[in-house]
Structure formats: structure tokens, C-alpha cells
From TrEMBL:
This is ABC transporter domain-containing protein. It comes from Riccia fluitans. InterPro entries: AAA+_ATPase, ABC_transporter-like_ATP-bd, ABC_transpr_CbiO/EcfA_su, ECF_ABC_transporter_ATP-bd, P-loop_NTPase. The lineage of its organism: Eukaryota, Viridiplantae, Streptophyta, Embryophyta, Marchantiophyta. PANTHER family: ABC TRANSPORTER I FAMILY MEMBER 11, CHLOROPLASTIC, HEAVY METAL TRANSPORTER. Keywords: ATP-binding, Nucleotide-binding, Transport.
Length: 317
């Protein structure tokens, strides 16, 4: 099997798969089923040469990184475990009307009732990934599976097979989006038209009770204005609003941002409890505080490229 350098392949590989690598040499092996290329990494966090092997599986290429003469790099693989509860396969996202990919062939998986952490530089695409997983943006390519089901990313949120029906998302600084003047109205938001039906009303009451207990809000008067809650309790309420929808997967964007040390510790405790019930994906820069909770971690690189990281990492020590 011989290997020759092909400039066409190298261009293809460099542009389609690794926009933030500067390609130095590309090698074609046998046929298109698998190939490897040697690239020079130029990002600030890791500089050096690296060989990337692409293996084709079910129509998608899976990247396998093996360092050659890298500085600060370890072997990394991006793989999807077929038995995991949440499976994200080859998701690419290009906003409508834009040529730029915000997510580039993102694949990962996470077992049920475990916590996955996504970290990386500002503007790399972490929030975009959460929006796609929550069904708020439709991927250009790829698929998301929850449990045994292929969730249809193109379905409207009200459809039971949609991603939005299975996933809850708590945005960064969620308290900025409170819309009502009482805790109970905030928890019922979006349900009001259905509450004429006595059975649905009873179901909603039970769900609210359960969500309130799950986040430790049971001591608070439900008629209180949510804006008068402490910052930590506002975060609890934002979580409860999503829990009322009974999602299987919860996504949290920077859940500790802007909180004091006490509220941060409370939210970490709350997430520890929540992990026993839900599958969680958290985007955060607070690696040390969240470290004890993390089961899997991925770094998002500029250009929307996600790579799995060994955990706990050197950064948490
Ligand atoms: N609808 C859009 N159209 C074009 N570009 C967009 C769109 N939404 C986001 N972007 C760009 O996509 C990139 C990724 O944004 P994103 O918010 O996902 O990054 P992030 O990693 O979450 O950053 P941060 O840590 O600062 O929140 C940014 O450069 C952003 O400006």
C-alpha cells in the first residue's frame, strides 16, 4: 500500500475537517475508507505536528488523533458509544445564509444520568452546540439520539418526537429572562392554556411540586416575585422551570457564572443531586469546581470542533 501526497486530498481534508489546522502533508492510504493526514497545529493551546486518521463508519468520518511530535498533546479520540443514552453523530451546523460552520462534524456520547462538561475558548461554538441539542437550531448534517430514539431535529417543539420535548436548556444568566411576577406563574409559563382541563391541572400541580422540591425552593412563598430571590435561588428557579417539563436531558450554559462562592457551592450541590435523575451537559469555564461531578469532558476548539479530553485533566489540579 503506497502512500503518496495528494494536494487535492490535503485541501479537502484541511478545509472540510480541520479548519483550524495548518496542513503540512497529506497521505492517501489505499482508498477513501480510511486515510490519515499530518497536520501542523497552530492554535495557542497546542502547537506541534499531529497525525489524524479518519475512519469511515456509517457514512461519517470519525477522527482519531495520534500525536507525532506534539507539545502538550495526548492521544484523543472522538467516538460515539452505541449503548450510551445520548448520542450525537456527525453534527455540523451552518446558520441559514452563512458559509461558515459553527459546528464541524461534532460527535460524542454520554451514558444516562451522568454529566458531560464542554469547555473551550469564547466564540468556539459551545452555546451553539447547546442550541442544536435543545432543538433551537436545526443541524445542517448529523443526528441526535436519545435513548433508543432518533429525535427528529426538524420537528417543531410541540411534537413529542422533537428534541425540544426531551431536552431542557438553562441559558447563561437565566434570571434575565424571567417573564412573570410570581414564582408560580414562572413555573406555569407556557401551560396556562391547558390548565382548564382538570386532569392536566392536577398533573401540572404534581410536576411543579416535584420540581420545587428537586431544587430546594419549597421554603419560598410561590406568590413571591422571582426578581426578589437571591442570585442562587434565581438559578434554582430557572432549573425548576425546565424540570416541570420533565426533560430526559438537561443542558446548562455557565450555571455558576456571576454567583458568589456560597451560591456557587449551592448550585454544585444541586447539580450533584440532579445528576441522580437526569443526564446533564454543562458548558462552563469553572473546571475545578465542577470537576468532582464530571464523567466525560470535551474541549471545543475554534471552528466548532469538539475533542474528547482525559478527565480529570491537568487543568483541574
Ligand atoms: N446565528 C449566527 N450566525 C452567524 N454566526 C453566529 C451565529 N450565532 C453565533 N455565531 C458566531 O458563532 C461563534 C460561536 O458562538 P457561540 O456563542 O456558540 O460560542 P461560545 O463558545 O459559546 O462562546 P462564549 O464562551 O463566549 O459564550 C461566534 O463567533 C459567534 O459570533
Amino acid at each position: 500500500m503506497v502512500l503518496h501526497v495528494t494536494s487535492k486530498l490535503s485541501e479537502l481534508a484541511a478545509t472540510s475537517f480541520c479548519p483550524n489546522f495548518r496542513q503540512t502533508k497529506a497521505i492517501r492510504i489505499a482508498n477513501d475508507e480510511a486515510f490519515s493526514i499530518t497536520l501542523k497545529r497552530t492554535s495557542i493551546s497546542s502547537v506541534g505536528k499531529q497525525r489524524i486518521r479518519y475512519e469511515k463508519s456509517r457514512g461519517n468520518y470519525n477522527r482519531k488523533y495520534s500525536p507525532l511530535s506534539c507539545v502538550g498533546l495526548t492521544e484523543r479520540t472522538v467516538s460515539v458509544h452505541e449503548k450510551d443514552f445520548l448520542q450525537v453523530k456527525g453534527v455540523t451546523y451552518r446558520p441559514p445564509g452563512s458559509e461558515a460552520k459553527l459546528l464541524d462534524n461534532v460527535s460524542f456520547s454520554l451514558p444516562e444520568k451522568s454529566l458531560g462538561l464542554v469547555y473551550g475558548p469564547s466564540g468556539s461554538g459551545k452555546t451553539t452546540l447547546l442550541q442544536v441539542l435543545a432543538g433551537l437550531a436545526t443541524p445542517t448534517n448529523g443526528a441526535v439520539y436519545i435513548g433508543e430514539e432518533h429525535t427528529d431535529c426538524t420537528k417543531k417543539p410541540s411534537h413529542p418526537g422533537s428534541l425540544s420535548a426531551r431536552v431542557g436548556i438553562v441559558f447563561q444568566f437565566p434570571e434575565r429572562y424571567f417573564l412573570t411576577d410570581t414564582i408560580v406563574e414562572e413555573l406555569m409559563f407556557g401551560w396556562s392554556r391547558q390548565t382548564q382541563d382538570p386532569i392536566l391541572r392536577q398533573t401540572l400541580t404534581l410536576r411543579i411540586q416535584s420540581a420545587v422540591y428537586a431544587v430546594g425552593l419549597q421554603g419560598m412563598p410561590l406568590e413571591m416575585n422571582p426578581r426578589n430571590l437571591s442570585d442562587g435561588y434565581k438559578r434554582r428557579l430557572a432549573l425548576a422551570v425546565q424540570l416541570v417539563r420533565m426533560p430526559d436531558v438537561m443542558l446548562l450554559d455557565e450555571p455558576l457564572a456571576g454567583l458568589d462562592w456560597k451560591a456557587r457551592a449551592d448550585v454544585v450541590k444541586l447539580l450533584t443531586a440532579l445528576k441522580k435523575e437526569k443526564t446533564l451537559i454543562i458548558v462552563s469555564h469553572d473546571l475545578k469546581e465542577l470537576s468532582p461531578l464530571v464523567d466525560r469532558a470535551w474541549e471545543m476548539e475554534m471552528g466548532g470542533i469538539l475533542t474528547k479530553q482525559p478527565w480529570p485533566s491537568a487543568m483541574t489540579k
